[in-house]
Inverse folding.
């Protein structure tokens, strides 16, 4: 009956529970121990290695001198030793015109991704609450319609949206540039709006799954105490759904960071707005054989997502699994 | 980038966030304006308005307009030409076929691998690290993934040291190095591998969470009944995570249909590797064939309708139970 609610999962003990189970002699516990078979372990190891090697190879290569990258495989790094930080220096800080100058694009990626994560999450959680806990006619139909919008490919919206922005947003951007000259005419606003719109269907759907799992009694109790919807939303739903909201936010952040298409259409492609992905794609197109630059450049673009991912992973997994909404 | 540029960028983000906070504050203020009978209606309006308005202006209306553009020639008259082009031009037909292949292969393999992996590492020591390794590609930009794999597929002519891992293997086993990215149809398969590599982690994380949500009693009861691990998997685990499976398959299918960055980065859509999403971009924004681009976008939409109908039915059942 329950849809995907990865959130209402009481975790059955942690590693300690596992150790206890190992000493437990009841039949069920013994059987549980047998679950982890050597074949499964080996298969899992093979997948883990296969999944890691391509990235690892690129990582090693990014620290090798250019001529070694071009002539020997990265796995021969012990036969052909060489370690250098020049590739990173070149792609990040070198002011020469032929260099990628990724510093500015790095800032752009952050400046696009942070607001483009916050905006849709806030609007989507409000809408998700309305669909989950407010009774109104046609609510099901509207929800299903929004769910179905997930699959309207953004390709369908690009051309008209570009025209809309040119008519309605451009004058505002020009005015802002006149008032504050350091802000270029071509600013981040179109990208923020586009990303927010395109994220809404999926984020509403996911957050609705989480928010509708919150026990009705909690909300009823608040209602009996005379709380209005806005109070319930702010004081009950948001705190209870924080782990879920955080995990959806992490996904959204990564999606925006990953994006190339929206950037290509709405950023104008200059250092003012374009994100790292767009710059990297350009580098592949124009200098597809400069492996020393491509490897280092790729890693510059991976640093932030990896920090987000590993830094928030515990929180993220806990939010996903700890049964946060069902105590 | 000068310091002035940097200040301008930070300023934009700060202004953006402040304005947004003001909008949300205004919404909450407006909600509290009404008391009495109409209050809940009034609040509902403000809860839904931002999302509904944005979707109407930014997705629904543009989609309708694009559909209109698809049925117009360059002079603005009604015509079927764009669709005729799509189903008669060999290159366009190839694009459609490639897209179908992508959508058949990526969700299937990613979900199967993700599920198998989640089951195998379930309750094992170091599960966290196993998960992190496979989930990591999800954090990588498609463009970054494209570069990583272009490096794996890199070609050096026979007799020279191979720097691409795949050709190094081929040569080590006595074969001739292959120009993977230029060889049709293997190149499309190798691009699909990249997408599977990215999406498996997502499937694994969601399904692993769902597996842990299955009550232990069920598993234990099945064990006491003397079932083997495969029976437990197919009769207890799979039914227990059906909802999660549907979501994973749907999400990955949709992501695959929109796949653009990988093709763009690795082959640029050349050598018969183009997919609908890439061709749409090329036609609408590079070749200035807005009609053809729109027609491709419409086709993309038609391709996913079956997925949606299936999901909407499941959703309707769920909403009725409540």
């Amino acid at each position: 009956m329950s849809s995907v609610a990865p959130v209402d999962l009481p975790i059955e003990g942690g590693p300690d529970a596992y150790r206890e189970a190992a000493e437990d002699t009841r039949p069920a516990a013994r059987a549980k121990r047998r679950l982890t078979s050597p074949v499964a372990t080996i298969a899992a190891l093979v997948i883990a290695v296969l999944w890691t090697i391509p990235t690892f190879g690129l990582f090693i290569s990014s620290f090798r001198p250019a001529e070694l990258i071009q002539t020997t495989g990265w796995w021969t790094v012990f036969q052909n030793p060489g370690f250098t930080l020049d590739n990173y220096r070149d792609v990040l800080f070198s002011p020469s015109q032929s260099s990628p100058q990724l510093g500015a694009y790095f800032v752009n990626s952050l400046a696009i991704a942070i607001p483009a994560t916050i905006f849709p999450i806030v609007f989507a959680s409000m809408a998700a609450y309305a669909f989950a806990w407010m009774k109104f006619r046609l609510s099901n139909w509207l929800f299903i319609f929004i769910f179905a919008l997930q699959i309207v490919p953004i390709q369908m919206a690009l051309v008209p949206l570009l025209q809309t922005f040119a008519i309605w947003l451009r004058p505002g951007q020009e005015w802002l540039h006149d008032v504050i000259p350091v802000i270029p005419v071509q600013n981040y606003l179109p990208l923020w709006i586009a990303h927010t719109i395109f994220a809404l269907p999926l984020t509403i759907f996911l957050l609705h799954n989480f928010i509708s799992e919150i026990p009705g009694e909690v909300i009823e109790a608040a209602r009996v105490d005379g709380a209005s919807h806005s109070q319930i939303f702010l004081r009950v739903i948001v705190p209870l759904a924080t782990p879920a909201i955080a995990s959806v936010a992490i996904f959204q952040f990564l999606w925006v960071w990953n994006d190339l298409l929206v950037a290509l259409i709405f950023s104008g492609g200059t250092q003012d707005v374009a994100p790292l992905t767009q710059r990297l794609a350009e580098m592949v197109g124009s200098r597809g054989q400069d492996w020393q630059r491509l490897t280092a450049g790729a890693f510059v673009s991976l640093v932030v997502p990896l920090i987000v991912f590993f830094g928030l992973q515990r929180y993220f997994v806990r939010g996903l699994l700890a049964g946060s909404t069902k105590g | 980038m000068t310091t002035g540029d940097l200040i301008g960028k930070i300023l934009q983000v700060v202004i953006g966030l402040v304005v947004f906070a003001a909008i949300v504050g205004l919404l909450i203020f407006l909600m509290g304006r009404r008391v009495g009978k109409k209050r809940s209606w009034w609040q509902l309006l403000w809860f839904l308005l931002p999302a509904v308005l944005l979707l109407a202006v930014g997705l629904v209306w543009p989609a309708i307009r694009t559909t209109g553009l698809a049925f117009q020639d360059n002079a603005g008259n009604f015509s079927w030409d764009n669709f005729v082009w799509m189903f008669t031009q060999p290159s366009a037909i190839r694009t459609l076929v490639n897209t179908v292949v992508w959508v058949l292969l990526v969700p299937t393999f990613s979900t199967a691998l993700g599920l198998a992996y989640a089951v195998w590492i379930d309750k094992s020591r170091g599960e966290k690290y196993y998960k992190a390794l496979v989930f990591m590609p999800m954090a990588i930009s498609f463009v970054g993934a494209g570069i990583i794999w272009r490096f794996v597929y890199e070609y050096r002519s026979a007799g020279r040291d191979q720097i691409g891992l795949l050709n190094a293997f081929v040569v080590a086993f006595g074969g001739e190095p292959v120009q993977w990215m230029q060889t049709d149809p293997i190149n499309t398969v190798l691009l699909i591998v990249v997408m599977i590599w990215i999406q498996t982690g997502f499937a694994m994380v969601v399904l692993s969470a769902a597996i842990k949500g299955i009550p232990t009693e069920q598993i234990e009861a099945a064990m006491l009944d003397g079932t083997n691990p495969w029976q437990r998997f197919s009769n207890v685990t799979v039914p227990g995570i059906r909802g999660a499976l549907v979501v994973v398959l749907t999400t990955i299918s949709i992501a695959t249909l929109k796949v653009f960055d990988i093709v763009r980065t690795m082959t640029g859509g050349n050598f018969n590797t183009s997919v609908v999403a890439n061709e749409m971009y090329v036609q609408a924004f590079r070749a200035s064939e807005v009609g053809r681009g729109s027609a491709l976008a419409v086709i993309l939409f038609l391709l996913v309708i079956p997925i949606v109908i299936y999901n909407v039915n499941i959703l309707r059942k769920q909403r009725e139970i409540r």
